[in-house]
Amino acid sequence: MLLVMDVGNTTIVYGVYKDKELVHDFRISSDKIRTSDEYGLIFTDSLTHANIDPAEIYDVVISSVVPNLRHTLASMVIKFFNKKAIFVESDLKLNIKIDYDNPKEVGADRIVNAVAVAKLYKVPAIIIDIGTAMTFCIVDEDANYLGGLIMPGIGISSEALFLRTSKLPKIEIIRPDILIAKNTIGAIQSGLYFGFTTMIDGIIEKILINKNWKREDTTIISTGGFSTMLTSDSKYDIIINRDLTLEGLRIIYEMNKDQNK
Questions:
Q1: What pLDDT sits at residue 112?
Q2: Exposure winner among 124, 175, 189, 229, fewest CB in 10 A?
Q3: How would residue 260 be classed by pLDDT, with cut points 50, 70 and 90?
Q4: Which residues are CB-neighbours of 198 under 8 A, at least 6 positions away?
Q5: Domain ranges for the chain
Q6: Which of 59, 67, 50, 51 is nearest to 7 (CA)?
Q7: How far, in Å, CA of 243 to CA of 250, rounded?
Q8: pLDDT tier at 16 (50, 70, 90 boundaries)?
Q9: Residues 6+ apart with CB under 8 A from 34
Q10: Which residues pair with 87 in a beta bridge?
Q11: Does the N-terminal peptide bond of residue 124 adopt cis geometry, omega within 30 degrees of 0?
Q12: Contact, 109 vs 133, CB < 8 A?
């Protein structure tokens, strides 16, 4: 079985593939303080709890946007799985061309999502990843990764309101029933939800105009923790794929597995 791991600033999402089937997926908090041994116990215990024998893991592929965890997780994979992990980098075989000023600056998660979309969907495509940060990535009809936009996610924005104001409370991020709220908590929830959903639709529209792409010829796909909440009611037909990054990791592994032989 193949262990794939997407390391984000808030969450580590990982899954186990048997051939092309995602057998199980897990989510844990991303903690820079944990040691390789602590991570190893978490990973092996969670696999065992899901009736997956850690000894059946034949390889590991990781995308990470947290540099401080790279050595920790690399050491963990060696110690607990007796493998050398493949880390996603721009110089791997990807079957996409990264058209960026410095390809090494592109986040591993953005690369993985672009590879997955180019393989699994029709291009051109707009990819919206809604996590701690929110990113828009653009892949053209020739599978060139053209770059995109990066902005604070809804969670960061909510936290900033709480931390940087004197009287606004910390709130649960939900889809509100009404636009014009009559209490402070409702007003914040409405502002965050409708602010972000309107922004998402607005940026999609600007990208389509900028690239002169027809809506019906363009795949628009969202992923990440808040993807379902923030894109379900879009005026655009957005495909929601919460496992997009895991799929991309599997695809990248298939293209690069010989490097670990």
A1: 97
A2: 175
A3: low
A4: none
A5: 2-87, 97-245
A6: 67
A7: 11
A8: very high
A9: 42, 72
A10: 62
A11: yes
A12: no
Number of H helices, E strands in the chain: 7, 11
Of residues 122, 145, 143, 113, the one with CA closest to residue 217: 122
Catalytic positions are 109
In CATH terms, the fold of domain 2-87 is Nucleotidyltransferase; domain 5 (3.30.420)
**Residue type (1 letter), 209:** I
Q: Given the structure tokens 């895991």, which residue do they identify?
A: 246
Distance CA 145, CA 24 (A): 29
DSSP summary character for residue 226: T
Q: What is the pTM of this model?
A: 0.92
Could you give phi then psi for residue 143, rounded to 5 degrees?
60, 35
Rounded to whole angstroms, how far apart are CA atoms 149 and 4?
26
Determine phi and psi for 133, rounding to 5 degrees. -100, 155
> What is the per-residue pLDDT across 87-109, written as a single tens digit (0 to 9) for each?
999 999 999 999 999 999 999 99
pLDDT, tens digit (0-9, with 9 covering 90-100), for 199-256:
999 999 999 999 999 999 999 999 998 999 999 999 999 999 999 999 999 999 999 9
> Candidates 3.40.50.2300, 3.30.420.40, 1.10.1200.10, 3.90.870.10; correct CATH number of 97-245?
3.30.420.40
Same fold, 2-87 and 97-245: yes
Average pLDDT over the chain reads: 94
Q: Please say whether the beta carbons of 221 and 236 come within 8 A.
A: no
pLDDT band of residue 178 (cuts 50, 70, 90) is very high
pLDDT band at 6 (very low <50, low <70, confident <90, very high): very high
